[in-house]
């Protein structure tokens, strides 16, 4: 199980790790139960932990008591969670995504930081987004760090991984406005009225979006940057954009 | 120098590490030069690196050529930056903060993640914020991870560290609206007109704000959360708030 901390093994097994009562409970509420559930004796006092164990057993999963030491090795944390679940990975094939399920989707291109990826999933959940489409060589959404940063949103959001050309072909088969943030535009991000479903395109942390990808966007916008820096953190930029799209549509 | 990766040693020496041409150049533009500058031969081709070396020498700093191997040990990265600077730490005593220098300030309480702290500095720079006030037991803003995540904003933003009671006493000596995000309010974050200077208060990643601290706020607001999760990442929540405050004031 510890080998699931490596992407190679996750891919081969089609499994990944999630830790902690909070995230495992979010998963259960989203309808996902672990194939294997490891717990240390100290971690089962909480009624939610009891419920999780019962539900996992009922669904035919393996429930395994172990030591805090071994859990620590599984999770790679000094201060381990007392519950670790092994889940079947849950990529959605792009052609199975139902774009009309939400008015907001996030598309990430060559995103490299697992914390950013998880945080973007968490934000997408918060704005009622449909999910995350990964294009080009993104970090694995099922890494321990990404799962942790998602705070369980990994289980509520659809996740697809594809190539740019395939994504664009799919996008143009139906409604959808592709919006990129860029330094190469004068359009303020609050100026346009965004059309649903809006696909917010976020680029690599260091390079931003390739110019050809910007060319494919229906709209390029920029956020005001009043300081010395010329860009925001990728997860922050995504959130500022996503809340603008949401704010234009919600009733206050 | 490598010991500066530990908080204890940073505090004792009053020094910290920053890496990479981009961040070191931001520092220089903000008026900060390293006391010591380590470089590997491969890293000095860029004119900005040449300028940095000349400026550091001119200011009386030590410029030391070393090997990529040793730089890797300094930075703790497999793929090291070719420039590492050692800087005098730059905490501003709270009483020396000039609150009228900006209409937006961030106050972080018991923030534990260095990536969040650095990202918040980067966002504060972007919205034209004055700086970051750390209360209670926050992660060290001069850790390698925080410096890296700040992308140089550590050098453009004022940073103060203090106790909650001291902060509140200082705040109430002058103008300033203290705004916290909370689950215990019905006020939408876009409803109020924020008053400058606005102090955005962000709580600990896991616990949020203590209730007594919320009681001290002039205003509690909440962001819409349409999904399963009940909170945003701390750096994301700060950014969504900070851009709302900025958007209310800027001319588009």
TrEMBL record, chains A, B:
Gene3D superfamilies: 3.30.1330.30, 3.40.1280.10
CDD domains associated with the record: SpoU-like_rRNA-MTase
UniProt KW keywords: Methyltransferase, Transferase
SUPFAM superfamilies: alpha/beta knot (SSF75217), L30e-like (SSF55315)
GO cellular component: cytoplasm
GO BP: methylation; RNA processing
Annotated InterPro entries: Alpha/beta_knot_MTases, MRM3-like_sub_bind, Ribosomal_eL30-like_sf, rRNA_Methyltransferase, SpoU_MeTrfase, SpoU_subst-bd, tRNA_m1G_MTases_N
Location of the RNA 2-O ribose methyltransferase substrate binding domain: 17-93
Gene Ontology MF: a single term: RNA binding
Assigned protein family: Belongs to the class IV-like SAM-binding methyltransferase superfamily. RNA methyltransferase TrmH family.
Protein name per its UniProtKB record: Putative RNA methyltransferase
